Structures are given as C-alpha cells and as structure tokens.
Amino acid sequence: MEYRSQGYKTKKCGQTVLSMITGKSVTEICKLLNKEESTSIIKDLKPFLESNGYDTSYKKVRTFEDIPNNSIVLLEFPDESLNGHFTLKVDNEFYDPSVGVISTYNKETRLPHSYLNFKKNPLKD
Q1: DSSP string across 13-36
Q2: pLDDT in tens, 18-32
Q3: What is the dihedral of CA 111, 18, 122, 115, to 10 degrees?
Q4: Where are the domains of the chain?
Q5: Which of the residues 23, 25, 81, 116 could staple to 72 if both were Cys, CB 3.0 to 4.6 A apart?
Q6: Using only C-alpha atoms, what is the Rg of the chain?
Q7: How many Cα atoms occupy the beta-carbon half-sphere of 37 within 13 Å?
Q8: What distance in Å separates the CA atoms of residue 53 and residue 123, rounded to the nearest whole number?
Q9: What is the pLDDT of residue 65?
Q10: Rounded CA gap, 88 and 71, in Å?
Q11: Can you name the CATH fold of 13-124?
C-alpha cells in the first residue's frame, strides 16, 4: 500500500483512501465521484469500490480491535460530533490521509464509528 496525503486543510479523506486502494489519483477520484470535498461511506465510497471490482461489507463498530484489515474506517472526533474522518486499515496499520501511517490511535481523541471492508473480486476485472 502506498500512503497518500489528502492535502493541508482539505476534506478529501474519502477520495484519498479510495486513491490508495485503487491506485487512481485523488484528482481522478474527485472527478469520478463528482465531489471535491466531503464524502459518504454508503453513498460514495461503497458504490465506487463496487463499481471498480471490489466486494464490500459495511459494519458499525466501537473498538479499534474489532476492525479487520482491508477496511475503510470512519472515525468520530469527540469535539466535532457532526464531522467524521476516513482512514484505511491495512496490514494492522492505519493509513490516515491527514497524519500518515500509524499503528494506533489515541482512544480519547478518535473513536471508530463504522468500517467498510473491501476485497478485490477477480471475477469483476
């Protein structure tokens, strides 16, 4: 997995995790989604992956330990209850478009809300 940054003060975390998964550029993902900023895990990320040959499953979760590898994770910030942030879990590390590759999150700062597990389907290539 190649880490990519969402850019300073942007809201392109969803587009950036899709970029890391598919290898497409963030600019191309924005054009394909027709969204330059905020995205939805259900309305944008899930359908995008499925239309690009991935099988997906969406689940709600409350602990980091319950998140499997190959998942897009929606994080909540206690001080910003209406906003979320997408990060990617691969090989037991989090590829966070805003801060880099990290092993764990400060549990007081970020809480997992849900995840979208994905797997490339060779029959959909």
Answers
A1: HHHHHHHHHH---HHHHHHHHT-S
A2: 999 999 999 999 999
A3: 10
A4: 13-124
A5: 116
A6: 13
A7: 5
A8: 8
A9: 86
A10: 6
A11: Cathepsin B; Chain A (3.90.70)
